[in-house]
Design goal:
The protein has 182 residues and is an alpha+beta fold. It has one domain (2-176). It is 53% helix and 21% strand. The chain has eight helices and four strands, in the order H-H-H-H-H-E-E-H-H-E-E-H. It has helices at 2-15, 19-24, 27-39, 43-55, 61-77, 103-116, 130-142, 170-176; strands at 79-88, 91-101, 147-159, 162-165. A four-stranded antiparallel sheet has the order 1-2-3-4. A hairpin with a 2-residue loop joins strand 3 and strand 4 (162-165). The longest helix has 17 residues, at 61-77.
């Protein structure tokens, strides 16, 4: 009997009984994988980060590199806790609490500083120099230690028996990146 159980167990491992796939194909597991990809700096996450940074016209090459490192640290330090999962047929909502660096406050403080001290961000001709301000703002973001918690309600849809995370709202994206103004 033990031999039969061992053989069946080995067979299940090699033939992929689908047990692991079924366990990984839940709305909660998909959300956990989504956030785990951020924490582990998955290739797709880095690819999207690169794309976003390269589209930013206000960064020079050095600032792009600094911002990328800043966001990589942000992603690695992101924490999450799944609070609830509600499945209704082929749709689901997973409630998750995340904790991220509070970059929104630093961004707001930098904008206020610019308004109060515009002369610090002028070039030799007295013209506004956006790169000086971006450098200042990046320096402020590097100093952020405070974190903030957000609750996100992420929706998923089952397509061909596979749970897929729906498109994130702008608000949820801002929360994940620590840029949500609260």
């Amino acid at each position: 009997m033990k031999k039969i159980i061992l053989v069946l167990s080995a067979l299940a491992l090699f033939t992929g009984c689908g047990c692991d796939q079924k366990l990984m194909n839940t709305p909660t597991k998909k959300v956990e994988m989504f956030f785990s990809n951020y924490q582990s700096l998955d290739d797709e996450v880095i690819e999207q980060l690169d794309k976003t940074i390269n589209e930013e016209e206000n960064f020079n090459t050095e600032q792009r590199a600094e911002y990328k490192e800043l966001m990589k640290k942000h992603y690695k330090d992101l924490t999450y806790d799944v609070k609830d999962e509600i499945i209704d047929g082929d749709t689901a909502t997973v409630t998750v609490e995340i904790e991220v660096y509070d970059y929104s406050k630093a961004m707001s403080d930098a904008e206020n500083y610019l308004a109060e001290h515009p002369e610090e961000f002028q070039d030799e001709n007295g013209e506004y120099n956006k790169f000086k301000f971006v450098t200042y703002r990046l320096d402020q973001l590097k100093e952020v230690k405070d974190k903030v918690k957000y609750t996100l309600n992420l929706t998923l849809t089952k397509v061909d028996d596979e749970w897929k995370l729906d498109h994130l709202s702008d608000e949820n994206e801002q929360k994940i990146h620590g840029m949500y103004i609260h």
